[in-house]
Amino acid sequence: MSATRSDATAAGPPRLMLPGLREVYGAYARAADELPALPGALQAEVWTSAQLGALEAAAPHEQGRRAALGDLVTVLRGAGTPGTRAFLRALAAIGPAGIRRVAGQAAGELRGLPEPPWADALGAVTPGQAWLIQEGPLDGDRLVCEFRYEGGADLHALAVRLSYGDAPAEIVVVGDVRAMMAAARQAMQAELCVVQPYDAAAVGARLRAALDGAETYPEDCYPALALARHRAAVLS
To answer: By the number of CB atoms within 10 A of the CB, which of 27, 73, 141, 156 ranks highest?
Structure first.
């Protein structure tokens, strides 16, 4: 047990803004034990985004979401395990802007715990090609942008389908980008869709407006929402 965890335990449970959710935060802290065993930064970011999505989907309003995020950081720091430190590192990398600094500070307070080899790669991506895929007037626009980690590792893509008025209808993190684009080109040859290059900065502007402008989102969008917001910010 780390000295940080021992001190926190001796001081009793941390004070929370939403103490009625203490068991919920505890469940997140326990779930974080699986995080260090994931194979890479992308998988860790997808995992973290799913946790954040569940929290946001359940929050009654923005103020409640911010309070819950602050409480979550407090509980993760107090748990003081390698998993919760990895979770804090991921929150500092791709979490909502308002929580990144405090999550990074909390992770720093847990230094000395073992870290997975991908910890320093979290959030450190470079955008690549961007595409606009149009499948028909009723299906909206699908915006696709490729990303790589340092050295060109772990090519992946964010694919977001925007419906009428640029409202998010679907958010997918694609691991096999080449297969996705090959399927899209086959569909284009069959005249089922149109695929064309799209300016990455323009993709970022549309995505930021769409992902930050809604009060609620389709249920299936929440798991990838935090990751999508991070990638859209990289496209600025």
So the answer is: 73
Task: Give φ, ψ of 101 to 5 degrees.
Answer: -65, -45
Max Cα distance, the chain (Å): 67
β-partners of residue 196 are 132
pTM equals 0.90
Burial of 215 from C-beta contacts in 10 A (0-12 / 13-18 / 19+): exposed
Query: Between helices 22-31 and 82-94, what is the axis angle to 10°?
Result: 100
Domain residue spans in the chain?
Answer: 3-120, 124-234
- 196's enclosing H/E stretch is strand 194-197
> How far from 189 is each of 137, 178, 202, CA to CA, in Å?
18, 16, 26
d(C-alpha 186, C-alpha 174), whole Å:
18
Report helix, strand and coil shares of the chain as percent, to nearest 5.
60, 15, 25
**What digits encode the pLDDT tens for the residues 156-185?**
999 999 998 889 999 999 999 999 999 998
